[in-house]
Batch of 3 targets.
Target 1
Amino acid sequence: MTMFSDSLRAFLRPILHLLDDQRISEIMINGPDDVWIESGGRLSRVESTFTADTLLAAARNMAQYVGRPLSDDQPRLDARLPDGSRIHVILAPMARCGTVITIRKFHPGGFSVEDLVGFGSLTDEAAHFLRVLVECKKNIIVAGGTGSGKTTLLNALSQFIGDDERIVTIEDAAELQLRQQHLVPLETRPADHRGKGAVSIRDLLHSALRLRPDRIVIGEVRGGECFDLLQAMNTGHGGTLSTCHANSPRETLSRLESLALLAATGLPLTAIRAQVSAAIDVVVCQNRLRDGSRRLTAISEVLPLDGRGDYRVADLFVFAQRGLQRDGSVVGELRLAGNAPTFLDKLRADGFSEMTPAFFGCDDGGFGLSDSDTQVGVDLDALE
């Protein structure tokens, strides 16, 4: 079974061996004679080349293949190929080096949480806790930088959603691979050449709320739809999962705040912050480390605002880096931060009796949280 149709493969002949190599996760074409790949988390340049005309023809064939416009008037394309691979195209002269194409390859079936544990991305304890959070319908934001593995982790977490739930997914370019029976996948649509017909994430979220969802899963929140999402989470739509571009739990909350402000609701900043802190239960941070490995670096509970209206977070798991090996590999592990979540009693009431303070490395009564705390974290140096 080929990755693309015969016609598309013909246009991509110079990189066919890269497309068929399962060890390669991403192909980056920076103009006709500059091709890079990512394999094992590391970037390397390859000798493959196109001519300017054949590369442009390949880009246009991709656009035709997915039924989306790509022209001088609309020089950008973000789409999913039928095999599941995600593509992004930018035409010259916006791309000064010539036509730019990035292909993020599709992994059939996706990765499970067990796979991620096997890769060393997270620990068994963290994986179990994340499963409990999903099954107990906590609202979770997976945060990280570009290429950090946010969508991979979100996809893995979705396996814990029950088959008896109605799930609505919303994405720009569909990458999620949910296998549940009752699934309603929605995908945005760009405007046509007349600037009409666009369907945004915000539009689809409004529709999703009228489709009687048990779960809403949004591939990435990136605009004013964030405000509508916060409203949904604050009015009974528990168990919502999404991703966001940010590098730390606190930065994630500030990022969501900024996105919610794009909705131009006229609410004061303190009201927006209250919405953010009330809606999000847990932030999970995923990062691409300097050696190219993807690691879960924090699981943090979002606490109520402090008396000054500032965000508070309590780290439950944190990644502690201890150094580098001679080959540049990062040495470190995900560790308990010594804080138990404030909703621990609710988890036990939902049947997870193992969720005790001891599970989180705390004394039987010690949660280490107080109303005066502005942030509850962990000193990584103390963990060495």
Target 2
Amino acid sequence: MLDIQRIRNETDAVKRGLETTGADPSLIDRVLDLDARRRDLQKRGDTLRAELNAKSKSIGREKDPEKRAELIEEVGKVKTELKQTSSVAPQVEQDLEELMLSIPNVPLAEVPVGPDDSANVVVGEFGAKPEPPFEPRPHWEIMNDLGMIDFERGQKISGSRFYVLKGDGARLQRALITWMLDTHTREHGYEEVYPPCMVRQDCLVGTGNLPKFGENLYRDIEEDHWWIPTAEVPVTNLYREEILDHGILPIKHVAYTPCFRREKMSHGKDTRGIKRGHQFDKVEMVHFVRPEKSRAALEELTDHAMEIPRRLGLPYRKLQMCTGDLSFVSCMKYDIELWAPGCKEWLEVSSCSLFGDFQARRARIRFKDEEGKNRFIHTLNGSGLALPRVVIALVESYQQADGSILLPEVLRPYMGGQETISKK
């Protein structure tokens, strides 16, 4: 949520920033109108309460019956107006709150301006793309031939866009998750948490997934339980409605969870393989930092994400998202993509985002600084990394001419010393 003071004081700048994201800048005019009405109602209410208090006291002191009757009549009129004012104010407050929740974050000035992903900037490309002496095959063929996956049984038990990993396929995914968690906790300074995979609605409002993106989420129809689209949601809400001491900042958490998302926006796309599914695994990194440290924290977070493909020996690239391709909650974002030679495309495996105080205002997460002042914290998150696309890139990049897969050295201890995945 944007700061109402910023909207009041930097109206034109906020409008220009929102316009670059494709959002309607006239929303800010509506905010200001509702904000002015709310403040007028509050001011009028305060005035009426003061007047009511003064006239009520005067009644007790007035000895003249006629004047006393006049005062009683005046008090009645003030009470009526105060009741009317008090009945309108909550609806204005609610309308303003709902409107504020619908407005996206404003990009930082350094974010490149552009309408969509065509204007994203490739910051760097790292590692050589594999050039095997044979035509690379897609992962769904390789994994099926090696008995790593069962598409038919996955669809039988759960429907389209589901599958069953088995044997070395399940072991490889588990090895990747464990190795990534160990890397981030032992070397990058993260504390691991394992949060619930179901959260209350307020948690999704806090991270910006609701109310705008409810159609992409799964939920329980009877209780206030929502399946998480990413571990960012429960991890960010660990400190919901808390005031943290500045001495414990920065806080860096990493979490592995299954994630659940409807694939409505990708209907008909990537129907083969495991690129898009309603359920997938992900290792997520979340930072809570002081405002003045957040820009540097984004670079640190992104480097931690890129360390995973570096050590796996997979070609990857770093992109800076333009204003039109930022998420609803981000003010700056990098994407990390891995090259998949069988699919012949770059696959996004991490979005590293800086949110400023946008989420903290929605979830009311603050910290007490050295002067004892309560300030909103800045939050960041990024995948470190997301499955199953890491599996896709690894399988397709390390495929051998005989159909086997050579395992990267860093994963072999997590696979019990196994060096290759071959037909049994």
Target 3
Amino acid sequence: MRTITGLWRWRSNPLRRATDLLEAWVALAALLAMLLVAPAVGVAVGATSSAALNRAIQVQHDSRHRVQATVDKISGQPRLVDPDPETSGDRDTSARVNADWQAPDGSPQHGTVPSGMDQPRPGDHFTLWVDEHGSPVAEPMAPGTASAHATLAGFGAAALAMALIEGLRRIAVWAILRRRYARWDTEWAQTGPDWGRTGTGS
């Protein structure tokens, strides 16, 4: 990163121009923003994400129930009764069975579900998560998973903030360079015709 390359322009130098000092100010401002603003953005996003995910976990725990299911027979069907879109990329690959269980209101349920066992047999019991109506759902998200997601979101936000700051710094330096070159062109146009002539400046 070249954010601090303009800081040398602070030193006293008779050839230093106003644009040199301005570039140094821009470099210093960008450096401070990266050290202070970007981490603050990361912490804020991480905290917000953590709070949102924890609320979602609480809702899941309030609306999902763990019940005991009994294997009726082994099923050859390759899909869940009601796959949860939240975990569609990480579905249970254990054997699927036709099973019986009870909904939270006590009504009997039957369907094809993942058993969580490699070699289930009729009569085996296993744990199943269901919603208020007794339909199979994914297990609620673990608090550790929520913390990991929130941490990644915070780091990602901080990285994006730093990238934005660096981008703004580059745009500012580009504008300063254009201004500097424009002044050089103006000064050269004023002094160029007399360059090298005897008595110039007398």
